[in-house]
Amino acid sequence: MAARVSLTKNQQKVLEKLEVATGPLSAYTLLDQLRDEGFRAPLQVYRALETLMKDGFVHRLESLNAFVACSEPHDHSHHNHRMTAFAICDTCGQVTEISDETIGKQLDDWVGSTGFVAKKAVIEFRGTCAKCAAIAA
């Protein structure tokens, strides 16, 4: 993983927006939020996001076509970027990142038993977070 100090100005600005966001952001939402900081084209955001994802600072939520900052971008001892799961609340939009090395290994072994070599797995759980469930009860 690249060190945060090696990020370009655009990458740093995109990452900062994602880190303070209360939920996932689309590339176009990021562009709108960054226009006052010199961003003019979607390509600027997409290039920054591509590098941030490659370097493990950001995750893409496939079902939402949106992005979140990694909850543990520098903790490789307890965090597996090859197998990440997300719990996404359909009520409030909260996203909780979940990573478990043991479960990741089991999933690698399971898919590997078919002869398939997985590069990455993203699992998204949709439902209701504890806070929203308590309010609804």
Automatic annotation (TrEMBL):
Belongs to the Fur family. Its cofactor is Zn(2+); Mn(2+); Fe(2+). This is Ferric uptake regulation protein. InterPro entries: FUR, Fur_C, WH-like_DNA-bd_sf, WH_DNA-bd_sf. It is found in: Cytoplasm. One of its GO terms (molecular function) is transcription cis-regulatory region binding. PANTHER family: ZINC UPTAKE REGULATION PROTEIN (PTHR33202). Fe cation binds at H78. The gene is fur. Its main location: cytoplasm. It comes from the Bacteria. One of its GO terms (cellular component) is cytosol. Zn(2+) binds at C89, C92, C129, C132. The keyword Cell cycle does not apply. Binds 1 zinc ion per subunit. Keywords: Cytoplasm, DNA-binding, Iron, Metal-binding, Repressor, Transcription, Transcription regulation, Zinc. Pfam families: FUR (PF01475). The keyword Ribonucleoprotein does not apply. One of its GO terms (biological process) is negative regulation of DNA-templated transcription. SUPFAM superfamilies: Winged helix' DNA-binding domain. Homodimer.
